[in-house]
Amino acid sequence: MQKNKSFMKKLLVCASVLGSVLSFAQEKDTVNSKSIEEVIINKMVKKLDTESSNKMPISFIENPQVYSSIDRGILENQNIFTVDDAYRNVTGLQKMWNPTGRAGDGGSFFVLRGFPSQASTRNGMVAPVTSTIDAINVETLEFLKGPVGTLYGSTVASYGGLINRVTKKPQQDFFGAVSASAGSYNTYRATADINAPITKDLFFRVNTAYTNEGNFTKSNAGNQYTTFAPSLTWNVSNKVQLNVDYELFRNRVTANPYFFYLSPKTLNGIDNMKDLEKVAGLDYKESYTGKDLYMTARNSNIFGNAKWKITDNITSNTYINNSDSYSDGYNPYFSVAYDVASSSYNVARADQSTNDSKKSWFQIQQNFNFNYDFSNGMKNKTVAGFDYMRTTERLRYKYLNSNFDTVAASGADYSGMNASALSALYANSANFSTWDYLRDLNTYSGYISNLFSPIANLHIMAGLRYENNDYLGGISGPNTEKAFNQSAFSPKAGIVYEIVKDKFSVFGNYQNSFKSNGYYTSDVAGNTTLSDPERGNQFEGGFKASLFKNRFNATVSYYNIKVKNQLLYTGEFTPNFASVQQQAASTLSKGFELEVNAYLVKGFSLVGGLAYNDTVDESTDLRPTTAGSFWNANFNLAYQFVDGKVKGLGFGFGGNYASDNNVTGDFILPKYFVLNANAFYDAKKFRIGVKVDNFTNEHYWTGYSTANPQILANFLGTIAYKF
């Protein structure tokens, strides 16, 4: 009851502030209706590629690849401050796992076209963030659909696609904004974005944010998120530009609940999370932990770019990038089971901590772009480049040799599992074990991609990558991993025909990715065999439309992705308990996507889509537990006044639907439909925004092989001053 009173108080205060602002709003505004309308179109509708994702500029209509994008204007209108929340605007993308913060792979997991994916690149270079990603430094989020091995290689993207963050860049004019936010679960936030030209050719910009918040299972958690992102651009001459930027994310967070090993066999026949709540009494709002079980996560990215316009047709881009991830702290997790003797459901509590874990990526990339326009509409665009990347893992996990304890699923005192108790257990080496990953990998690549337009309406794309993975060997727990050197080619092809020039096109593509799995145990005697590269091949076709002066953009496509040479567990073991495998598995993923971005009525915009995916593990004829839901849909409707006394006032309403998700083969995370709403007032010198996410208080779970409860109804109000 107290939480509801606090929530309503915040809502009434922000509504009052917004009403006061509107009452004093003047009919005359410094921004005219036409420019406001153009801003709305740019934010909500236009679909233009950037060089960072395709490594060369290609317009939406002539690109044979399917992609989605989110402009920072959408984030501002929806009052979104994390990249995770921004993903709800992407057709066919479904969140599966909350970030854990642990180095290497601790970022959020998502499903694209039936395959797990993570946000792995920044400005086209490898830069995973292994914790919650603050959106303060985001200009655009880009989502390339399907295998993208030709341009990005085997170590970056999944077979389902690639998520790329494009960061804010310094500009030549002085401007800035500072903001303050407050909301549900003791959320408080402050941000600053300041752009300051130092000279006429040297520009500086800094983005920074600090957030302190609880969560719906522990409102007093005091989770802390700090982001600091300075950047510098120097126009050395009219042909040479240097860019340097840095990102630091430092988070201290207590984990949301993660439930593993869910099965009707151990749950007295219960096969879904809804019934586990209703029948077993599992408490959706309970953290099942005590105090101070924090994970400290740190990510830093250093990025340098030298751009040289050699001639009017040839450009050189040299990139140097270093990305580091670090983690240290607790990572509790749980399982639920039915106890026959007591006729009750219990939660077993355990922990897997990380101990000074580190993973880093160092990358050097050189690209040459060739852009030629010929007579009669003929033109050609080419990117040719090479890439070196070194991946270094120094990961250490600590885990208790047995469960911490077992408690009742509801009504018990859960405070006993806390930092003091776990620290005391970890002080005695007899209580825990460690598992280290010590690995080094050098990757050398060369690639070329070409888009040829023999006539104005026809575009033909072809590309090829050669990649060499030189694994120097390593350690995985007690096991020594053999060094290997393996190479592979990755081709791609595509064709676009513009049925109506610049407005309506039909397209098709072939895309490829691959993966080196190294050595595997191939028989019960313990012999090992170097696996062939695992390969994913996609064939896709569809239509694109860009109508009414870019006010309506749409893509509809059907895809078929076949992954071969995957490793398959045989169920046999060596005398040392190593699992025997065969390279005999394959996965087939097929489906369709419809995405629409529209601005057809003055002030009114729509972003939405529908996706269906059918993924099958062909060795078992079952859907993989990592494939997500069959159906996903998203929409956001927004209206903004572009003239009159309330010019700049806007409202938004949106939602996400997902069908049942089978996460363990026989256990289901039920379908959900989550609704969100927002309002804002944008003037020249200030901006006020309010939002309510999940306003129907939907209980919904995400996960693959796990179940993670998602945030309930939550409110956020923001006031920003612009200068």
TrEMBL record:
Underlying gene: fhuA
Q: What GO molecular functions are on record for this protein?
A: siderophore uptake transmembrane transporter activity
What the entry lists under InterPro entries is as follows: Beta-barrel_TonB (IPR000531), Beta-barrel_TonB_sf (IPR036942), Plug_dom (IPR012910), Plug_dom_sf (IPR037066), TonB-dep_rcpt-like (IPR039426)
Q: List the keywords (alphabetical).
A: Cell outer membrane, Ion transport, Iron, Iron transport, Membrane, Receptor, Signal, TonB box, Transmembrane, Transmembrane beta strand, Transport
Q: Does the keyword Transport apply?
A: yes
In terms of Gene3D superfamilies, this protein maps to: TonB-dependent receptor, beta-barrel domain, TonB-dependent receptor, plug domain
Question: What is the protein's given name?
Answer: Ferrichrome-iron receptor
Entry's Gene Ontology cellular component terms: cell outer membrane
* Native species: Chryseobacterium aquaeductus
